[in-house]
From TrEMBL:
GO terms for molecular function: FMN binding; oxidoreductase activity. GO terms for cellular component: cytosol. InterPro entries: Flavoprotein-like_sf, FMN_Rdtase-like_dom, NAD(P)H-dep_reductase. It comes from Termititenax aidoneus. It comes from the Bacteria. SUPFAM superfamilies: Flavoproteins. Residues 4-149 form the NADPH-dependent FMN reductase-like domain. This is NADPH-dependent FMN reductase.
Length: 189
């Protein structure tokens, strides 16, 4: 069976550049991988009062199960005001709880930050590293991927038109695949 990669996009925007980059990278993974865009926009804002065995929102339960079954995590996100977008932070928080049942723990992940501007969402990238280290998401540290000036890298169909970017992301996808292969496989499919 194939290795399952969950794709998490830190933007809900219909024409999100981050989602386009995420799809491109997912499409570059080797044949023994399958990826799925995980919906995080439907998760309500985390509230501890609701997180009791009787009252946990079903969407949180499903999301936690979905994360638990993954072999690897691909995060692609813009930054909002030099930090993490709330939709992505909310998803990270939901699957980190209840206390002691953090389903992110021990999973291999990679992070890509995306911006139409010059700085490649560096702020979000580094704030996410802090949270992900705490959650015991085992991030691949190199190569780092900061995508700047993203509109200039995509064609009208939203596919990568810049050959250097394409080549770099191909190398990155191969490194991610190697990374995931180092970890135990989840027997879920
Ligand atoms: C932004 N944007 C932005 N960009 C950036 O490079 N650094 C930043 O700090 C911010 N801050 C910010 C705050 C808020 C509230 C919004 C809505 C936007 C711009 C952002 O990068 C741009 O809208 C991207 O297109 C969003 O990513 P998606 O939706 O294309 O994936």
């Amino acid at each position: 069976s194939k290795l399952n990669i969950g794709v998490f996009v830190g933007s809900l925007r219909r024409e999100s550049f981050s989602r386009k980059i995420a799809k491109a990278v997912a499409g570059l993974l080797p044949e023994d991988f399958q990826s799925k865009l995980v919906d995080i926009g439907g998760l309500s804002l985390y509230n501890q009062d609701e997180d009791t065995p009787e009252t946990t929102p079903p969407a949180w339960v499903v999301f936690r199960q979905e994360v638990k079954a993954l072999d690897g995590l691909l995060f692609v996100t813009p930054e909002y005001n030099r930090s993490v977008t709330p939709v992505l932070k909310n998803a990270l928080d939901i699957a980190s709880r209840p206390y002691g049942q953090n389903v992110w723990s021990g999973k291999p992940g990679v992070l890509i930050s995306v911006s139409p501007g010059q700085l490649g969402a560096f702020g979000a990238y580094h704030h996410l590293q802090q949270t992900m280290a705490y959650l015991n998401i085992i991030l691949l540290n190199q190569p780092e991927v900061y995508i700047s000036n993203v509109p200039s890298l995509l064609d009208a169909k939203g596919e990568i038109s810049n050959p250097q970017t394409q080549k770099f992301l191909q190398t990155f996808a191969a490194a991610f695949a190697q990374w995931v292969r180092l970890f135990p496989v989840k027997q879920t499919n």
